[in-house]
Write a structure and sequence with these properties.
With about 675 residues, the protein is of the alpha/beta class. The chain contains 21 helices and 27 strands. The protein has four domains: about 130 residues, Urease, subunit C, domain 1 (Roll), CATH 2.30.40.10; about 140 residues, Diaminopimelate Epimerase, Chain A, domain 1; about 250 residues, TIM Barrel (Alpha-Beta Barrel); about 55 residues, no CATH class. Helix content is about 30%, strand content about 20%. The longest helix is centred in the C-terminal third of the chain and has 21 residues. It starts with a strand and ends in a 6-residue tail after the last strand.
């Protein structure tokens, strides 16, 4: 372990002797000097220095150990870093910061549980939090993409939640922010947008709730199986942000914990990807308290409805918030967030398989799964041909195949379900014209526009509109950015580069995982089984998280953890590892899209600062810039250069300096 040392009196005396030998000492000295370090500057040439000097909140020197001595006097705090790596503070430009600290509520902590294991875990929460009959059990950080194996007694998540309790309405929030699950009592309490209590069932999904049908998992007869995703979740829980982020207690008690979490993670600037007026004001109070350890750009929340005529009033409301914080030192309320689509995971464990929600340009396949989870034989065993005569008949008269006896006979004869004959293309999160109008109007109002675009259809729509309003954005000096970009068509990758769009990748998602890939790839590609999931010639594998291609075309790569998705921990170095590694040690997720360590560090520092709009002041360690920097317990550049990128994820932050002040020191270090 690297031991950092604070120079004692004898050490300072030796320094002063050296200073005297070098000539006249400058009159202005530093408050803090960090020396004997590997100072990775992220300047234009990625130069490496040995020492850095800070006065107030500014960097006044970057250079050699010898030259820094002229900035030292008996008031200077000098830290000998014993060769440790020092770099700019991390920019996390897509994070839900409130969700990075654990609330006092039922939290499954992204633990993979089978449906049988889930029942006692939820019953324990009911007892531990003394939830009375009739009261809601709200559960966060449900690992929707891991575990959830059914059994004969519990064939789906609804059955498991019913087994946990029939006296409590139960709602699970998926750890991705997009999935959810409910028991029968919760489904019976659904409230439509008009405020009327109308249960969610097969009949209402064909009538009252037809709009939400693609977001709700159903069985072969059309009855809900418990999965309830995206906007459909608001039918059960109107205040989703409060639920998901644990904002049921006071924000003012949560905010200082968020500040501590950011400091220990080395995150000194961030973009909170969904900020409401309430949470923005809580950030403001944190700044006023003097306990804020990061700079924050608020990506302000999108409208609650899709009425294009009402966008102007929403713009006015957000503009007032922007003006309110225009003089803030640490808060910028000049960005907006828009969901263009949802997510790409289907569920192969339900019967029939639940289809992905996000829209794909060429639509989805209808895989047939078979085998057993327990003995490892579960796999893709075939595909439904929607153009066969049998399927044409179903498409012509789908209502004729909703009776249980008709469905059973169909499955017995053909080996798949009638509804699998229906072509599925997924949906955008909003009407396409609304998405385009919102991007245009917000750009015209001078806001930075940040769009969640995960699948290729949403990427195309967003890039199309970004191109149309680029001149307006350039005139205002505002940025355009996409979040996630799990898959993008090659044509759109090129356009992203040509337009200079920032892509905020959650790089840690580029790590392969067989269980996850089974939820995605078979619905996009026709594969002959698990062995073909990572076929390098497939459309998905060639275009999944296309970081290097976008960079080569001129796009700007930026880091965004999306915490608490998958983990409350922002895991900056786990993400940085996968930017250069894209592997689980056995399989590589498209080696052609790996980026080098220097590009990766830039994505976490100067590129994030550029997207934030303050790269003239932050993002690199150069004289005159603000002193936001971190010290690491291992040298991530050397790990990559020595072909050990798999070790980068274990990196810890030993010291965080924010605005020239030390705001975090790891306890086990001695100074």
């Amino acid at each position: 372990m690297i031991i950092h040392k604070r120079l004692n009196a004898a050490g300072l005396a030796a320094l002063f002797l050296l200073i005297g030998c070098q000539g006249e000492k400058q009159t202005e000295t530093a408050d803090l000097v960090l020396t004997n370090a590997y100072v990775y500057t992220v300047d234009e040439s990625n130069s490496v220095a040995q020492a850095i000097a800070i006065r107030g909140n500014r960097i006044v020197f970057v250079g050699s150990e010898q030259e820094v001595l002229k900035f030292v006097d008996d008031t200077t705090v000098v830290r000998d870093l014993s060769g440790a790596m020092l770099m700019p503070g991390i920019h996390d430009m897509h994070i839900h910061a409130l969700g990075t600290v654990e609330p006092d509520m039922c939290d499954l902590k992204s633990t993979s549980l089978s449906l049988e294991e889930m029942v006692p875990a939820l019953q324990d929460c009911i007892a531990r939090y003394d939830i009375q009959a009739g009261e809601w059990l709200i559960v966060v950080q449900w690992a929707f993409s891991g575990g959830n194996e059914p059994s004969d007694e519990l064939p789906n998540i609804r059955a498991a939640l019913d087994a946990a309790s029939s006296e409590h309405p139960i709602f699970l929030w998926g750890d991705d922010g997009h999935h959810g699950a409910a028991n029968s009592l919760a489904l019976s309490l659904a409230t439509n947008p008009a405020g009327e209590n109308i249960e969610i069932n097969a009949a209402t999904l064909r009538a009252e709730y037809e709009h939400y049908r693609p977001m709700i998992a159903v069985d072969s007869s059309g009855e809900p199986t418990g999965g309830i995703n995206e906007d459909a979740r608001t039918l059960l829980r109107a205040n989703g942000l409060a639920d998901m982020l644990g904002m049921t207690s006071g924000l003012d008690e949560t905010m200082p914990r968020v500040a501590m979490k950011m400091a220990e993670s080395g995150i000194t600037s961030l973009q909170d990807a969904i900020v409401t007026p309430e949470t923005l004001h809580a950030y403001g109070r944190l700044e006023d308290s003097g306990r804020m350890t990061f700079r924050m750009r608020a990506a302000l929340v999108e409208p609650a409805n899709e009425n294009i005529a009402e966008i102007d009033s929403h713009v006015a409301m957000l503009a007032a918030l922007r003006d309110e914080y225009s003089d803030s030192e640490l808060i910028s309320a000049n960005s907006v967030k828009l969901f263009a689509d949802a997510v790409l995971e289907g569920n192969p464990l339900t019967t029939p398989p639940t289809m992905p929600v996000a829209a794909m340009l060429d639509g989805f396949k209808q895989p047939i799964f078979g085998g057993n989870i327990e003995d490892g034989s579960f796999d893709v065993v075939g595909y439904v041909d929607p153009e066969r005569d049998t399927c044409i008949a179903v498409q012509a008269e789908p209502e004729a195949y909703t009776r249980a006896d008709r469905i059973a006979a169909f499955v017995s004869e053909f080996g798949f379900y009638p509804q699998q004959c229906i072509p599925h293309r997924g949906i955008l999160e909003h009407d396409e014209q609304f998405i385009r109008a919102y991007i245009r109007k917000m750009t015209e109002a001078g806001f930075h526009v940040h769009v969640h675009a995960l699948a290729d259809k949403a990427v195309r729509v967003a890039v199309d509109e970004f191109a149309k309003v680029k001149d307006i954005a350039d005139r205002f000096g505002t940025s355009q950015s996409l979040a996630h970009v799990q898959i993008a068509h090659p044509d759109d990758q090129k356009r992203i580069g040509e337009l200079g769009i920032s892509v905020v990748f959650t790089f840690i998602w580029a790590a392969p995982g067989l269980e996850y890939e089974m939820m995605v790839v078979p619905f996009i590609e026709e594969v002959g089984g698990k062995s073909e999931l990572y076929n390098p010639d497939s459309y998905y594998m060639q275009n999944v998280y296309p970081a290097r291609t976008i960079q080569e075309y001129g796009g700007i790569l930026v880091n965004g953890s999306d915490a608490p998705v998958s983990s409350r921990d922002p895991r900056p170095f786990g993400s940085l590892q996968q930017a250069v590694y894209r592997s689980n040690g056995e399989v590589i997720m498209n080696a052609e899209q790996r980026i080098d360590i220097h590009s990766a560090i830039a994505a976490f520092t100067i590129n994030g600062a550029r997207l934030f709009g303050h790269d003239d002041k932050l993002g690199s360690l150069e004289v005159g810039k603000i002193a936001d920097l971190i010290v690491l317990d291992q040298n991530i550049v050397e790990l990559a250069d020595n072909d050990n990128p798999e070790e980068i994820g274990a990196t810890k932050v030993d010291l965080t300096v924010f605005d020239g002040q030390i705001v975090f020191e790891r306890a086990q270090q001695s100074y």
